[in-house]
Amino acid sequence: MADPRRQRDDRVVQLSRSGALGGALRQARTSAGDLVRRTPRRVRVAAPLAVAATVGAVGLGLVTTGATTTEAPTAALQAIDASDVLADRDASVSRSDDRAELADPAAAQLAAAALADWTAERTAALAQQAQRAAEARQAAADAAAAAELQATAAAVAAADTVRWTTADLNLHTTAGEGAEVAGLVEEGTEVLVTGRTAGGLEEIVWEEASRWVSAGYLTDEDPTALSATSTGPGGVAARSAGGTCTNGSSTPSGVTANVADLHEAVCAAFPEITNYGGTRTDGDHGRGLALDIMVSGATGWEVAEFVRANYTDFDVNYVIYEQKIWSVDRSGEGWRSMEDRGSATANHMDHVHVSVY
Questions:
Q1: Which terminus of the chain has a lower count of CB atoms within 10 Å, N or C?
Q2: What does the pLDDT look like over 135-156, one tens digit per residue?
Q3: Structural domain harbouring 285
Q4: Domain holding 209: CATH number?
């Protein structure tokens, strides 16, 4: 009678040679791997044990039963408690959570500390760069200021040209914007000029110091009276006051005595002008406090300068001509530019406007 154990060994050898045993083992390993990937981590720990048990069972089953299929490994894996797997699966976390759990807290702390150190160093470096840039700008500004002081001192020392002012002028400390007004130089005053100009101002020497006044109000002739020698932006000398109007022009009723006296003086000085505008319904005209002298060109500047030179006689408030204005309260600034109002008449290109108090 044949030895049963030998028969069993012969079957194992035959299965091994036929590849059935190897295929069964491979399928068992594949099935176990799939299950591990689909299950929570604690089930994965049990998976190798289950695979080992399954492989053992496969080998034993093949030897004892002589099965020739590969169903045994799957059946063996199904022996794992399904309810336990499902319960653990519901409580499982994602792979990213698993990786986060596996991260080394100490390493994370070191990384955070390194980032904080880098940020602090970068912030300090940027602050140093900003400080160096500010220091460089300040040094450049100081150098420019020192150079300007030297140039100013040289210009004041070399000034030898005499001029006379044709209006009361504000004395500015510098030619820059926002310069301080250090005083007032009266009309007809003799001053020395340096020949330097900037920003619509001219440099003069006043009390042995550099001062800046509005350009266009210095003359090389010694004036005996402002009304006889002053010139405006048009470069035309003003006429003297006095006399009687003889051309038959008049002003309408309703104007003040100052306006009437102004018309009489302008008419006497400029008999060629016969057209005047007085009352209207708006502004100073509506209150009888304004006179429009209908003239243009160089003669218009003669009229404007005539009125400005004699403003105290008629209690003048301000004069407008060719988009420029002169006012009593800002007389030290001379003629100032005005905004564009859109038309020749609105910009006072065809008449001189005078408002009185």
A1: N
A2: 999 999 999 989 989 999 999 9
A3: 257-356
A4: 2.30.30.40
